[in-house]
Amino acid sequence: AVHTRDQVELPPPTIDNRLTVHPLWTxxxxxxxxxxxxxxxxxxxxxxxxxxxxxxDMRMYRREMEVDGMVMDPLKAxxxxxxxxxxxxxxxxxxxxxxxxxxxxxxxxxxxxxVSSDAMVFHQTFKRIWPASQRDALFWSHxxxxxxxxxxxxxxxxxxxxxxxxxxxxIRLFVTVCLACRSSYPAGEEPTxxxxxxxxxxxxxxxxxxxxPAGVLRAVYKREYPKFLKRFTGYVAEQCRDKPLxx
Length: 247
Ligand code: 6CM
Fold this sequence. Notes:
The protein is α+β, with helices and mostly antiparallel strands. It has helices spanning about 5-10, 15-20, 25-40, 85-95, 100, 215-240, and strands at about 50-55, 60, 65, 70, 75-80, 105-115, 120-125, 135-145, 150-155, 170, 175-185, 195-205. The chain has a single domain (about 5-240), classed as 2-Layer Sandwich (Alpha-D-Glucose-1,6-Bisphosphate, Chain A, domain 4), CATH 3.30.530.20. Strands 1, 2, 5, 6, 7, 8, 9, 10, 11 and 12 form a 10-stranded mixed beta sheet that branches. A two-stranded antiparallel sheet has the order 3-4. The site of N-((E,2S,3R)-1,3-dihydroxyoctadec-4-EN-2-yl)hexanamide has 22 residues, from strand 7, strand 8, strand 11, strand 12 and helix 6.
């Protein structure tokens, strides 16, 4: 049978049954719910969020936080993208097929487990940043829909006996990421590429897992996060341009 992109690849509108019977389900469901709620909360009223990058509709905030001298700054970014849906945005973020095309900090990516159509486990190594050791990460990734034209991808570190931490050249880092997207279009109109806008909230907290100089790490984040969000959203807009809109 011939499948279109819409039928087989886009994130499913409801949770895949195979995920709900997996040992990770309880954790995935709890953390995803928490992360999605937090993602759409503003930064305006909260103390300690500092704006560190602004370009067009994109705004990036961080909160300086150190635990035992290690930088764990939570990051929160807001952006608006025209001409793509929340579901399309999350499709390109979740699906590993596209990852090397937009993720510039990546060195290798391995699929550890294909849990379901909406959940996977990945092992990734990142490019080494001098003078720190190279980092790797092992995390589950889950894409889900929510009411109000909303989709989100949540990534969160996990463990796997076949991928023990700190066993080779890499130090294991720990990550919690949420890319939450909500589409809107004029009331009374059908959504089209011309009238749709997607608001993005991206939250990330990385624990470097071992010594890394704070100044270097903060400089890397300051440079790499805006680069990532601009590149990723531009990439999705480009990929979608000549395809039918998928809501
Ligand atoms: O969210 C992003 N990418 C996802 C898919 O790869 C996934 C990745 C999470 C890992 C984020 C770790 C970033 C650290 C990269 C620098 C290497 C650290 C070395 C430390 C030693 C000084 O959620 C986009 C991530 C964009 C990161 C800038």
